[in-house]
Amino acid sequence: MPAAALKPKPLPTQSTAKRPVQLDLPYAPVAKRPLPAGRPREWYVTHNRRLKAMRLAIALLDSGVYVPNQARNETIRSTARRIGVHPPSDTTCHMVRALMRYTR
């Protein structure tokens, strides 16, 4: 008997199943807490910029933009408009591309 016949078949995935596979329900977001007081203003600006960049990177990945070269400033800004976020600065757009680069 060939070795391939002895291996158990893997479970079907969304792309290989004959019928749609039931996916887990989306997670419930964590309750927001106030940011810690007493930090310099620049810390809050950087923190919020990172959060915005992460939201935009996730939205771009969900929309099919997987490579940082595909994420031009115009693409990132149109995605921000679509998800209801204020238009990002050039620095934030650069951060979005950096996040996409390091997740690969």
Description of the structure:
- Residues 1-20 are annotated as: Disordered.
- It is a single chain.
- This protein has 104 residues and is an all-alpha fold.
- 48% of the residues lie in helices and 0% in strands.
- It has a domain at 39-104.
- The chain starts with a helix and ends with a helix.
Give the helix/strand layout:
Layout lengths: L2 H4 L34 H22 L10 H11 L6 H13 L2
Helix pairs in contact: 2-3, 2-4
Overall 3D form: extended
Q: Element order, helices and strands?
A: HHHH
- First CA to last CA: what distance? 40 Å
Class inferred from helices and paired strands: mainly alpha
Major pleated sheet? none
Oligomer: single chain
Number of helices: 4
Radius of gyration: 20 Å
Share of residues in strands: under 5%
Low-confidence sequence ranges: none
Region (Disordered): 1-20
Key attributes of the depicted protein:
48% helix, 104 residues, mainly alpha
Offer a concise description of the structure:
The protein is built from 4 helices and no strands. With 104 residues, the chain is an all-alpha fold. The protein has a domain at 39-104.
